[in-house]
Amino acid sequence: MIQLQNVNKSFKGDLAIQNLNLNVNKGEILGLLGANGAGKSTTINMLLGFLKPDSGKVSINKIDTTHNSQETRKLVGYIPENVNLYPYLSGLENLDYFCKLAGLKYTKSQLETYLTTCGLASEAHNKKVGGYSKGMRQKVGIAIAYAKKAKVYLLDEPASGLDPLASNELSILLKKLASEGATILMASHDIFRVREVCNRIGILKNGVLVKELHSKNVSANELETLYLQFMQN
Amino acid sequence: MLQIIKNEWRFFVRSRIFLSISIAFIAILLLSVFLGNYQTQKQQQTHQNAKDHVRQQWVSIDEMNPHSAAHYGTYVFKPSNLLSSLDEGVNTVTGNVLRVEGHVQNEIIHSEASQMQAVSRFGKLKPSLLLQYIVPLLLIFLAFNTVSNEKQTGRLKLLVLQGAKPLQIILSKALSVWLYGVLLLTFILLVYGVLNFQSLNSEILIRTGLFFLTYCLYYFIISGLTVFFSARWQNATLSLTSMLGIWIIWTLFLPNILMSSVEKWNSLPSRNEFQSAMKEDRSKGLDGHNPADKRGIALKEKVLKEYGVDSLSQLPINFDGMRMQADEDYGNSVWDKHFGNNRDILQKQKKNFQLGGMVNPFISLQNTSMGFMASDNLHHQEFLLQVENYRRVFIKMLNDKQTFGGSKTGNWGWKEDNAFFKSVPDFDYKPTQISVVLPNYILDMFFMMLWSILVVVLIVLGTKKIQIV
Question: What ipTM does this complex have?
Answer without folding.
Answer: 0.90
